């Protein structure tokens, strides 16, 4: 096998990926992956985004793939470089994001014999990939060239089709790793008209029992994360409106709009009396489960109520084992086909909207514009960003604040978040990847300080790759979320080992990465800072005060809801 063999095969492989539709790849430097890297970089139909850190590269690719709804390739050298893909590959698996990992490896004779940078890369990502393939080293013959074209089509198709997800191709490569002569014409130049070697016809939407499903008057729609198919979100909102049903939609669902969307379900369902009074006759679920704990607990308590999950990708989003039926129908068609012949129950929807209105009024009154708190920041971003903008929201409190404090009713900005595995890692890189996916307005990232510190290296994408993300960091010097948990009482170890204050000066990080840094304290200052593209906008908050604020807002909201009901039940814990 010569370098010419290697490059002929890889050129055909990349040509085929491009024919399948691959438009973006992320490269990281190394020696062993030189042939893959150069073959991708020389393929004009594929934009190659260069990254120093493989962990950032993979999370960036995740962002591109998420925002563009299409596979993205990543390539790195052998050894721990490939291991750095693990977190993003796992997130992609859980969040159903198509990634094509192309890792370079030592050839068989250099494995487990003390050769440098050689680790066991076979099935490195375990069950977190849809398909693993050890790509044998080979000479370029008409037969192997046909095979590698087919292989590229299979990789692309496997990542993109059915339930999307990552695939892993491990390429053992022998030296020499660069060409010493010009590459000859391809003896197997690919199909005519630029078609892929193998094309798969789209799977037709199946007719299912959901078509024509008759539903009762007192139903509810619960919509969770579905970052790809916003058509499902729209269909959920329309169905809820048509049927006069409350819509409990988290911001990641694309469904949180329309006259029946209930913004404050996370708060309302903390009240046991309200939760009991609004038990429905049917629950229709789309997308992943929303983050809200009270909503999850309420669904879990309704084991005897018929719960129907519209889930064509067999995702089994049901930790409480309460779903009665999983309908694999195409969700838009299934939602459109819901109909009722039961007499309308105006009190049903009114109970929810009255409570939502009362709770929202209290939350709004309690959010003081003069002091930029964490919930107010979430509220302002949800209110002020236009629908064509994308807001990437980090795990921890930002995603929770978005769920409770985002408005509902008018179309929101597109909201994306790494909620497949709920990690705080790679969030900055994901946001830059989202910015790299062409075709939408500005990108804003709402993130906590620990999550920002975790992926601070992701900031290098701004200057190196010429991308703008406006980063709004809520800096409470540690993990504020842990103050809401029982561990906060473990005084001997809590601060140092759980809250983990760091005292980092993000202005200096901004300077290192060539970014503007602005500190803001009021809603007006935030609005002004948001006018500028890119940079870091820092809001200093206090973890203990944040806990108190969340508690007092929740108590005020719940009190207003109880005041609406004929019987006022005992107080429930706010957080
Ligand atoms: C990779 C990873 N490590 C650890 C955790 C556990 N964790 C959840 S939230 C959190 C703290 C996040 O703090 P910050 O980003 O400042 O947000 P805040 O809690 O203050 O809102 C940690 C460490 C995680 N989810 N993912």
Bound molecules: thiamine diphosphate
User: How many separate helices?
Assistant: 21
Question: What percent of residues adopt helix (DSSP H or I)?
Answer: 25-40%
Strand content: 5-15%
Q: How many whole angstroms does the radius of gyration measure?
A: 26 Å
Query: Structural class per helix/strand content?
Result: alpha/beta
Walk me through this protein's architecture:
It contains 21 helices and 17 strands. It is of the alpha/beta class and 575 residues long. The strands form three sheets. It has a six-stranded parallel sheet with strand order 2-1-3-4-6-5, sandwiched between helices. A six-stranded parallel sheet has the order 13-12-14-15-17-16, sandwiched between helices. Strands 8-7-9-10-11 form a five-stranded parallel sheet, covered by helices on one side. α20 links the parallel β16 and β17. It starts with a helix and ends in an 11-residue tail after the last helix. It binds thiamine diphosphate. Residues 394-398, 422-425, 448-451, 476, 479-481 line the site of thiamine diphosphate (TPP).
Nutshell version of this structure?
The protein has 575 residues and is an alpha/beta fold. Helices cover 38% and strands 14% of the residues.
Write the layout of secondary structure elements.
Layout (H helix, E strand, L loop, with lengths): L2 H18 L3 E4 L6 H8 L5 E4 L3 H15 L3 E5 L3 H4 L2 H10 L3 E7 L25 E4 L7 H19 L6 E6 L46 E5 L6 H14 L3 E3 L15 H4 L3 H6 L4 E5 L6 H9 L4 E5 L14 E3 L3 H6 L9 H21 L7 H11 L5 E4 L3 H9 L8 E3 L10 H10 L6 E6 H6 L5 H6 L4 E6 L18 H6 L6 H7 L4 E3 L3 H7 L6 E5 L2 H22 L11
Parallel strand pairs: 1-2, 1-3, 3-4, 4-6, 5-6, 7-8, 7-9, 9-10, 10-11, 12-13, 12-14, 14-15, 15-17, 16-17
Helix pairs in contact: 1-2, 1-6, 3-5, 3-15, 12-21, 13-14
The structure holds thiamine diphosphate.
Thiamine diphosphate binds next to helix 14 and helix 16.
């Amino acid at each position: 096998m010569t370098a010419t063999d290697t490059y002929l095969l890889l050129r055909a492989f990349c040509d085929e990926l491009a024919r399948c539709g691959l438009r973006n790849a992320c490269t990281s430097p190394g020696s062993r992956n030189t042939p893959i890297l150069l073959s991708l970089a020389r393929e004009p139909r594929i934009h190659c985004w260069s990254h120093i850190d493989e962990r950032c590269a993979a999370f960036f690719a995740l962002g591109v793939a998420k925002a563009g709804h299409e596979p993205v390739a990543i390539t790195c050298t052998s050894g721990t470089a490939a291991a750095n893909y693990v977190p993003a590959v796992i997130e992609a698996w859980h969040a159903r994001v198509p990634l094509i990992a192309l890792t370079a490896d030592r050839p068989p004779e250099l494995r487990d014999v003390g050769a440098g940078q050689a680790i066991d890369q076979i099935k490195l990502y375990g069950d977190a990939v849809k398909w693993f393939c050890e790509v044998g080293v080979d000479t370029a013959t008409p037969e192997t060239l046909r095979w590698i074209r087919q292989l590229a089509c299979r990789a692309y198709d496997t990542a993109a089709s059915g339930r999307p997800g990552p695939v892993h191709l491990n390429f053992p490569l022998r030296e020499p790793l660069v060409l010493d002569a010009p590459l000859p014409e391809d003896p197997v130049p690919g199909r005519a008209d630029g078609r892929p070697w193998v094309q798969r016809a789209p799977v037709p939407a199946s007719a299912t029992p959901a078509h024509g499903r008759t539903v009762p008057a007192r139903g509810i729609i619960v919509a969770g994360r579905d970052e790809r198919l916003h058509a499902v979100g729209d269909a959920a909102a329309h169905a809820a409106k048509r049927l006069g049903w409350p819509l409990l939609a988290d911001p990641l669902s694309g469904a949180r709009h329309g006259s029946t969307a209930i913004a404050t379900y996370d708060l309302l369902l903390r009240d046991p009396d309200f939760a009991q009074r609004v038990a429905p006759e049917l629950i229709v679920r789309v997308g992943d489960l929303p983050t809200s704990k009270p909503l999850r607990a309420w669904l879990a308590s309704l084991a005897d109520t018929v719960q129907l999950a519209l889930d064509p990708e067999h995702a089994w989003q049901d930790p409480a084992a309460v779903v009665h039926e999983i309908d694999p129908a195409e969700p838009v068609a299934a939602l459109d086909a819901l109909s009722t012949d039961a007499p309308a129950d105006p009190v049903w929807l009114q109970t929810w909207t009255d409570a939502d209105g009362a709770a929202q009024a209290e939350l709004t009154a309690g959010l003081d514009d003069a002091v930029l708190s964490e919930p107010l920041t979430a509220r302002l971003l949800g209110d002020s960003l236009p629908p064509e903008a994308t807001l990437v929201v980090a795990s921890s409190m930002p995603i929770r604040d978005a769920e409770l404090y985002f408005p509902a009713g008018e179309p929101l900005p597109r909201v994306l978040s790494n909620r497949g595995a709920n990690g705080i890692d790679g969030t900055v890189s994901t946001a830059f990847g989202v910015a790299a996916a062409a075709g939408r307005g500005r990108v804003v990232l709402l993130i906590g300080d620990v999550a920002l510190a975790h992926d601070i290296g992701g900031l290098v994408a701004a200057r190196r790759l010429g991308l703008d993300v406006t980063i709004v960091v809520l800096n409470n010097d540690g993990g504020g979320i842990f103050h809401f948990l029982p561990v906060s009482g473990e005084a001997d170890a809590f601060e140092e080992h759980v809250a983990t204050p760091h005292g980092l000066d993000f202005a200096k990080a901004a300077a290192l990465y060539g970014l503007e840094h602005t500190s803001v304290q009021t809603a007006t200052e935030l609005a002004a800072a948001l006018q500028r593209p890119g940079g870091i906008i820092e809001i200093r908050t206090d973890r203990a005060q944040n806990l108190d604020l969340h508690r007092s807002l929740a108590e005020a909201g719940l009190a207003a809801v109880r005041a609406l009901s004929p019987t006022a039940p005992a107080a429930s814990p706010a957080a």
